[in-house]
Amino acid sequence: MKKGIIHPLVAGIFAAIVTIGYGMAYEKATAIEGDQLESLREAIPMLHLFIAPVVGCLIASLGFALLQKIGPRWGAFLFYFLFASVSILSSFGIFSVYNLHEEIQFTIYGYAMPMHYFPFLSWVAFRPLFFTTGK
Fold it and tell me: How far apart are CA 92 and CA 90, in angstroms?
C-alpha cells in the first residue's frame, strides 16, 4: 500500500518540478515579462502547475490499480493506452485559453502543451523503482 501512494507522489512531484522548470525556461527564452507574464499567470497560475501533475499521478495510480483488478491480463495495456490518450487529448485544451496578452497569444501553445505529457512520462519512469513486476 505504501508503494502505491509513494510512487505517484514522487512521480507527481518530479513532474511538477519539471513543469515549473520548463515554464520558467520557456518564459525566459521567449522574453515573457511584465503585462505578458501577468496575463500568463492569470490564465495558468503557478500553483496549478504544481498541483495538476501530483493529482494526475495520484489518479493514474488509482486507475492502474482498478484496471489491474478488473483485467490482470490486459489492465496494464489499457491503462497505459488511456493515460497516454488523456495526456494527448488534454494538451489540446490549451486552444481554449483566451484573454491572453496579444503578444503571447500564440506562444502559449509551446508553453503549455508539453506540460501535459510530464505526469505520464514521470509516472512511467518512476514505476520500476517501486514495482519490479508488471503489477
Answer: 5
Residue 14 burial class via C-beta count within 10 angstroms: exposed 0-12, middle 13-18, buried 19 and up: buried
Alpha-carbon gap, residue 93 to 102, rounded angstroms: 19
> Which residues does 40 contact at the CB level (< 8 Å), separation at least 6?
27, 32, 100, 101, 104, 108, 111
Helix (H, G, I), strand (E, B) or coil at 132: coil
pTM value is 0.89
Separation of alpha carbons 115 and 122, rounded Å: 11
Q: Tens digit of pLDDT per residue, the chain (135 long)?
A: 678 899 999 999 999 999 999 999 999 999 989 999 998 898 889 999 999 999 999 999 999 999 999 999 999 999 999 999 999 999 998 888 777 888 888 888 899 999 999 999 999 999 999 988 654
